[in-house]
């Protein structure tokens, strides 16, 4: 029962986020606003405990969420054969770019601290 309450909290916060996003013409999508609201709401045990139980249930069944993706790939094997190499190259390149940017951003404060320590 607690898990259903957690799912209800998730849906309510996403709906409120959608309403705020559309009503205030925010440049963020509604689910993102809902996640920010969820982050704030997780400070309260009334929300945190049911959402934790719901999250544990969803994580234990996470593999089921990959079935639609697998079916989609199987139904579009022709497109995958035609564009698969390009898609693989784009995915690999974008992954490496993301890793490089992340490493640079994480390394930047350390270099700045070393430069300040020398001064």
Give an overview in words:
The protein is mainly α and 119 residues long. Helix content is 85%, strand content 0%. The chain is built from five helices and no strands. Helix 1 crosses helix 2 and helix 1 packs across helix 3 (45-60). The protein starts with a helix and ends with a helix. The model has no long low-confidence stretch (mean pLDDT 90).
Quick gist of this model?
This protein is mainly α and 119 residues long.
Question: What's the helix and strand layout?
Answer:
Elements: H1 2-23, H2 30-41, H3 45-60, H4 67-75, H5 77-118
Helix pairs in contact: 1-2, 1-3
Helix content: over 70%
Residues in β-strands, percent: under 5%
Determine the structural class based on helices, strands and strand pairing: mainly alpha
Major β-sheet, in short?
Answer: none
- The mean pLDDT is 90
Number of helices: 5
Tell me the overall shape. Answer: extended
Q: Uncertain spans, ≥5 residues at pLDDT below 50?
A: none
Order of helices and strands: HHHHH
Number of strands: 0
Radius of gyration: 21 Å
Distance between the termini: 60 Å
Quick tags:
about 120 residues; mainly alpha; 5 helices; about 85% helix; extended
